[in-house]
């Protein structure tokens, strides 16, 4: 039995294009797999946001402690009547941490943000930046 090749140019062109596309697809897959295995370098560890952040001036002392997905705040208004009086009248707040955003205890009202080594909150209409200790 003898097979006869069809010398039709259109069929040969289609076959050549199809083979070229298949070879390119396989080459792309192989290169992609090789690049993925080489790019699996370890990412630098981001510094933990957990810790104590503080701010103080002549009118207020603020401390925010972040631990996992919760935060707590201690606010001391400096009255000039003595530190014992000021400590007795300290205000305490707490809430939820979602990513880099601080929310009140309901989890719906944003009260601050975390960036690098600081916590930014609004107190009496002013933005205050607390630094990590």
Offer a few descriptive terms.
8-stranded antiparallel barrel; 2 helices; 133 residues; alpha+beta; Lipocalin; 2 domains; 40% strand
3D architecture notes:
This protein folds into two domains: 9-38; 51-132, Lipocalin, CATH 2.40.128.50. Helices cover 27% and strands 40% of the residues. It has two helices and eight strands. The termini are far apart. 9% of the residues are buried. The model has no long low-confidence stretch (mean pLDDT 80).
Q: Could you give the order of strands across the largest sheet?
A: 1-2-3-4-5-6-7-8
Average per-residue pLDDT, rounded, comes to 80
What is the strand tally? 8
Question: Architecture of the largest domain in CATH?
Answer: Beta Barrel
What is the CATH T-level topology of the largest domain? Lipocalin
Q: Give the low-confidence spans.
A: none
Terminal CA distance reads 89 Å
Strand content: 35-45%
Structural class by SSE content: alpha+beta
Q: Using only CA atoms, what is the Rg?
A: 32 Å
What global shape is seen?
rod-shaped
Give the number of helices: 2
Helix content: 25-40%
Q: Can you tell me the CATH class of the largest domain?
A: Mainly Beta
Encode the helix/strand succession as letters.
Answer: HEEEHEEEEE
How many separate domains? 2
Q: Please summarize the sheet with the most strands.
A: 8 strands, antiparallel, barrel
